[in-house]
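anyone else get weird line breaks when pasting these?? whatever heres mine. first is seq + tokens for prot A
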Amino acid sequence: MARYLISFNDGAMDHIPDEDWPDVGKAAHAVIQEAVDAGVWVFGAGLERQRASVVATDGMVTDGPYPETKEVIGGFSVVEVATREEALAWAAKTAAACRCAQEVRELMPDPETDAMLRRADRR
């Protein structure tokens, strides 16, 4: 099983009229519930529109990119599925619910972190 990041850029949902937001929220939560029920949901969230802080290796904190920057992520979900095609299918459901295109990227596996989490769950 592989984990996939499904994300969209900040501003991708700006075309949605205010009166449609309750329907969009209901549709998005229905997709999340379907993913939870299917056992593929890992985590997801929308991101607040704000400047990011960048923390350098020496600990210095500076302002990061502004939300108006096209590269800023507006929201994301992580699913754990057997194939890329399955991840793309979940992204299609998310795109329809959220009324915006979704980007799909496979996350690199990290067996050491997975082992740490399994040990922590046993405590």
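and prot B, same format (seq, then tokens)
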Amino acid sequence: MIKVIIERRIMPGLEDEYELAAREAMRISLGIRGFIGGETLVRLGHTDRRLMITKWRDLRAWKEWHASEARASAMQRILPLLTEDETIQIYEAGY
């Protein structure tokens, strides 16, 4: 299993619109093969900062989702709401 950490910074005043778009993206990912689950965190004192932690069966499942038309479509609603490119980091269990 891997965890994918996505950090996003939202344009001030667009947090509610972002939440709707992000929920839709999460709803779509629920049906994707290899998706295990995820959560979204809001940084204390910074309502424009989001951290998404998603769990995937393996790197292949994540790469398929990342390159999919479904994700590209969901991101068309999210990207215009961000002040900068999202950052994505991938982690696996330590040994």
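btw re prot B: The chain is about 35% helix and 30% strand. The mean pLDDT is 94.
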